[in-house]
Amino acid sequence: MTVRFSLASLILLLTLLFAGAALAVRPDEVLADPALEARARTLSEELRCMVCQNQSIDESDADLARDLRVLVRQRLVAGDTDRQVIDYIVSRYGEFVLLKPRFNLRNALLWGTPALLLLAGGIFIVLTARSRRSTPAAMLTAEEKAALDKVLGN
Amino acid sequence: MVETGHFALVLAFALSLVQALVPLFGARINSQKMMAVGGPVAVTGFALTSLSFAALATAYATSDFSVANVWDNSHSLQPLIYKITGTWGNHEGSMLLWVLILTFFGALVAAFGSNLPAPLRANVLAVQGAIGATFLLFILATSNPFARLNPAPIEGRDLNPILQDLGLAIHPPLLYLGYVGFSICFSFSVAALIEGRIDASWARWVRPWTLVAWMFLTGGIAMGSYWAYYELGWGGFWFWDPVENASFMPWLAGTALLHSAIVMEKRSALKIWTLLLAILTFSLSLLGTFLVRSGVLTSVHAFATDPTRGVFILCILTLFIGGSLALFAFRASRLTAGGLFHPISREGALVLNNLFLTTATATVLIGTLYPLVVEAVSADKISVGAPFFNLTFGPLMVPLLVAVPFGPLLAWKRGDIFAVAQRLMAAFAAALLAVLVTALFIDGASVFAALGVGLAFWLICGALTDIAVKSGLGSVAPGIMLRRCAGLPRSVFGTALAHLGLGLTTLGIVGTLCFGTEKILSMHAGETVQLSGHTLRFEGLYPAQGPNYSEDRGRFALLGADGSTTSVITSSKRSYPVRQMTTTESGIKTIGFSQLYLSLGDEATDGSVVVRLWWKPLVTLIWGGGLVMMAGAAMSLMDRRLRVGAPSRRRKSTGAVPSASLP
């Protein structure tokens, strides 16, 4: 979330966000096991803070984000895999919480567009180049030829 | 004064209608008199909009709280600079700035366009006038900045504290100069479509305007990124926020336009594509305005609750994007395609550039709009955030960046890829060395980091190779080489600088993302902390009073090897009483190209304070690279200026070193 072109339109949201600003991850949340904590951080970056514009829970100061961070860590300590943690959070908060949309049919267009467009554009360029090369360059008209001969001194 | 401003704005609207209609009609019936109306009207319209803007700025500077807009966004205790920048720190004022810049560009065309063919100039000014008219109407009808309050309140409600920063003085004006600058390219394209032909002067004009707009947009985005980095207090530099994407899409499309315009100018190929790209680039600017201004980004429902502004901008959007694309569909076939070229050539490389950049633009576009579409169609809500863009945009950029050094070294029409690869051997060796050094000595664990550093060095050395080869390195004596180098056209340096800047930005991003370190801890006064070889001692919290805020300043001493204080870093938590908001002012110490970044958190009951500390290696290169890119654009403009101002003089002055034919 940042301040740019939108300045005014985001002010309200920013106000919500920065009222009582604290820091994102707080020291008392950090897990003792560094490997587990690293997984928690990675997962947190893919989960959205529900009350902010576009922040992950890893970056957000909101209380709800803190609750989610703690929840993620509890599940990890309980022995969940990354996948299970995500599924658990989605079952409680819905897909809106995922900053990385799932690969499913509804999101096919979203994930597929870059590759499709690159392919289509590439094919279009190759075909245009082919057809251009196969059409012979326009011949000179009689007058042009005469003018050219004159210039060349023939 | 305020009513004068309002009246001037109404007059400017009336004049913009004249500007939109009279020259257009004049060009149709070939009336010199009617076509000549465009210029003076455009200049007068700019003068009136300036007057209007000055009136609002004066109201802000003098804290005239009888103006609702000033009351809502200013406070008598604010420092003068923030009073003035507050003029555009709100919806109404920023739209007025938008229109001011639009009319400014229109006036520039009027002032410097005397060497353009009359009908082209008339049509360009007409399109420019039409854009101005719709936006002026938008301001007057839905976002009047001059509305009065009676009785006038004694005190204002303060500018949002986050906006009380120098960033607000620089970022929006630069960004708007970029956004709106592309309106000129748009107007030229639509004018060409109206006339049904593109002539040489068209190509000569569009490229410098693209350069100007691109230069400002680059600066605006870089500045905004740095502002967000230090102001928001968690050290991120790019968030893939929809609002950021709204400015990034025109930049990507504009970059593609910049490159295709070169092909068109030098080789008169890709005409139709360039024209379409110019339309798309400005359309994306308009789309960005719509997305941000309508409130549709937060939710489709938020849009529905107060739709006046949103629907109005949506109409403008439909009119200009739909209209211009329809015109394109009808008229494009009348334009003749240009010169032929072999796939392995400078043109071919630029086509590849355009393919990747437009795909990247579309990727950002679909990522930004997809949640809206899903919500509108199925009432489900999904999010598309940074992980999506990193997974899609990232892979699209890598092949493009790898190809960059090849482009400028390939010859026009038909290039020799092996010869170019040979010339790039030194750059490749340098990149390989960078990969090895990174992998062996800095971080052996991350292949991505090593390759990223290699890619950055490839770009940087590739740009230097470009200059070296064109100066004749290896084939002529050093003295001659220097003279040749000095004689190279400015645009060659421009290209090299821009590509160099791209390499620096890449290096900064890779450095920060891959080698950055972070610590979160609670500290008592007197405690020390170590991070990546730097030792910091927390000296304690000290209360302080600003003009319109109070703050707790956390002082940190950066300790040298012998334990003495080498410098002091402060980070503070500010509290603005009027809006009852607190902000975190981060403490930043720049060391070389890297930065130590710290920000304060909550104070605990036992007197300890939460501190978040980052070491961000090479982070300043991210924005430094942006500045170098801007310098590149400025350098290219110096080369072009001769052409725009005096096409007749050009023939004498350039012939010396035709850049196209150099190896």
Plain-language structure description:
- The complex is a heterodimer of chains A (154) and B (663).
- Chain A is an all-alpha fold.
- Chain A has 6 helices and no strands.
- The longest helix of chain A has 27 residues, at 108-134.
- Chain A is rod-shaped.
- The model of chain A is unreliable at 1-23 (pLDDT under 50).
- Chain B is an alpha+beta fold.
- Chain B has 4 domains: 1-164, no CATH class; 195-315 and 332-403, no CATH class; 416-515 and 621-646, no CATH class; 517-616, Tick-borne Encephalitis virus Glycoprotein, domain 1 (Sandwich).
- Chain B is built from 23 helices and 9 strands.
- In chain B, the strands form 2 sheets. Chain B has a 5-stranded antiparallel β-sheet with strand order 2-3-4-5-6, with no helix packed on it.
- In chain B, β4 (550-559) and β5 form a beta hairpin.
- Chain B is globular.
- The N and C termini of chain B lie far apart (61 Å).
- Chains A and B meet through α1 and α5 of A and α8, α9, α10, α11 and α14 of B.
- Chain B: Belongs to the CcmF/CycK/Ccl1/NrfE/CcsA family.
- Chain B: Its main location: membrane.
- Chain B: Residues 314-640 form the Cytochrome c-type biogenesis protein CcmF C-terminal domain.
- Chain B: It is found in: Cell inner membrane.
